[in-house]
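Quick illustration, no need to memorize.
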Amino acid sequence: MIAQDRDKLEAQADQIEAVLARHQVSIQVTGGLVTPRFVQFKVAANLGTKVNKVAGLAEEIAMSLGCREVRIYRQGSHIHVEVPRREPAPVRLLPLCEGLQAVPPLTAILGVEQAGSPLLLRLIAPDVAHVLIAGTTGSGKTALARTLLASLAMYNKPDQLRLILIDPKGRGFGALRCLPHVESEVAQTGEAVLVQLRALVKEMERRDHAATNRPVLVVAIDELADLLQTGGKPVEAILTRLAQRGREAGIHLVACTQKPTASLIGGAMKANFPVRLVGATASRDEARFASGIPDSGAEKLEGKGDFLLIAKGEPVRFQAAWLGQTDLAELARGIGDQA
């Protein structure tokens, strides 16, 4: 648990109780949890108290606490009130990894979940396969993708894992070129992307015939919506084919988008991205398209690494780990020393 002044926490709890009491809602704050980004207050309500009535007072509670907004939801027999911290604590990838005992092969470190435990994602698990990272500008989606890819490189040798980077805008993945796992150049132009994708299809077919799936290929795509818009039907057809058949050949997609729309995430593409990492979205509709579930609450996330992991239709909130340029250079040197 992250330390925070107890008097301030108790004052916030008293303020929440006071606001609800003014509206004849009898509740008591019975505990809480401090995370890097927010404080979660656990509220015990009388039998018959409606969550909607408490949620309807979210704006008034936020005003009384001096914050932009609070998130109110029910979990089990309690109502939870999440209050953003004024000074969020960063979660750095390298110190987080130092506390891990063992990481299974082809497993990425995403960050820390609400209870403070590291959150891991095993890419080759049957119910993972491909990952969609969605969120508006400032949500931290590209930074999360870099963390995911770099953490895979930390625990898997280049002959076990290869990274193929597609970055149409040329700003998201360039820093990862220092990793020995990166295959060829970062594809940026439409022509280079199409050449890379066609080569991946040929490699998938070769592996199918050879009955092999090693080394694992992780294809990372920044700005998926832009890529589909500029590449048109040929790019969409190849990506759909890779999403449908790539897993068996050891090919996995990690795609980022800031425009999670029904037309983008529809049909075969939707069915083949069972895991979603969803940051702050611009609207409730975008939250629904990005997460694949109703009322995920992604439109209320705080941005800057505040994410939901959606797997099997269930959301897990977490703070994404951060990997700065200096830390990435240190990581690359460490990998080089081990080679």
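The chain has a mean pLDDT of 88.
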